[in-house]
Write a structure and sequence with these properties.
about 300 residues, Elongation Factor Tu (Ef-tu), domain 3, 7 helices
Length: about 300
């Protein structure tokens, strides 16, 4: 029991340390953010439909902060407090509302200011305060009302078309419900087709892999080896044909010389090459007359 109680105390202490660490991080982050931002009070003389806590504060369309509180100062005045980043807000900055999308959520819009204009004047509590232009708020309200009236008029003028469109949608959904089984079979066939396409693509990948290996894979490829062998064969044939041409030219030269020699001395064809150079023995000379007399 004592060991189990020690484990519970250790676990509770660990969870407490973790919770304290998270709390410190969140507090430090909020303190850092608060130091970076400064307060700005905006007074609206009229209704501010759609403005709520957490809304954006935009300066020339760029978000620079958010609304932290919205409250009534009197029945005709609304005061909004915002925390904004460093921005060139001056005393002549125009303040209004702008609506984001079709959700109806409003954002405080700050527009324009002169470079030489003085900074925003602070109220008694030291918070800079700007007053929104009532005409701008009235223009926004009128624009929203005009837009809603136009939408209402379009819907009223095309009431029959809208009704027919809704009927067509209903008919289409009924047709889909009646043919749900056919749609399932179509989807199944499409799935089968896609499976076959996947198989074809796998085979194509295999073919491309084989072509890649044939053309030059890791070991150089069979096609590259065949090209190298054919190149070596062509080189050998070129060398042998060159030697054959040289031998043929030498043989033709020998034949040409032999024909020329035969033309000059045909006897060489019968007696051989030595017959032309063997001298013909001269006839014996007759004995002198003096020797015949002595006999």
């Amino acid at each position: 029991m004592e060991t189990r109680a020690n484990y519970v105390l250790i676990g509770a202490f660990t969870l407490g340390i973790i919770a304290a660490a998270f709390s410190f991080v969140l507090w430090f982050q909020s303190l850092h953010s608060a130091k970076l931002r400064s307060p700005l009070r905006i007074v609206f003389e009229g209704p501010v439909t759609g403005l709520r806590t957490g809304g954006s504060v935009n300066f020339n369309g760029v978000r620079i902060g958010e609304v932290v509180s919205v409250k009534l100062d009197n029945p005709r005045r609304v005061v909004a407090l915002a925390m904004i980043d460093s921005a060139p807000v001056r005393n002549d900055t125009q303040v209004g509302l702008e609506f984001q999308g079709l959700t109806g959520v409003a954002a405080i819009a700050l527009k324009g200011s002169s470079l030489d204009a003085p900074p925003v004047a602070a109220a008694d509590d030291g918070v800079p305060t700007l007053t929104a232009d009532p005409n701008a708020l009235q223009d926004i309200t009128e624009a929203v009302r005009a837009t809603l009236q136009n939408i209402n008029r379009v819907v009223a003028e095309n009431q029959e078309s809208v009704r027919n469109s809704l009927r067509n949608v209903e008919t289409f959904t009924e047709v889909l419900a009646r043919n749900a089984s056919k749609l399932d079979s179509i989807v199944a066939k499409a799935d089968g087709v896609m499976s076959k396409v996947d198989g074809v693509m796998s085979k194509a990948d295999s073919v491309m892999t084989g072509i890649d290996l044939l053309a030059g894979g890791k070991d150089g490829g069979k096609l590259s080896a065949a090209i190298e062998s054919f190149k070596e064969l062509a080189d050998n044939l070129d060398k042998r044909s060159g030697a054959l041409i040289v031998d043929g030219r030498r043989t033709l030269g020998d034949i040409s010389r032999a024909i020329n020699n035969l033309d000059r001395d045909p006897r060489r064809l019968i007696f051989g090459p030595g017959s032309a150079s063997t001298p013909t023995p001269a006839p014996a000379a007759a004995p002198a007359a003096s020797e015949r007399r002595r006999q």
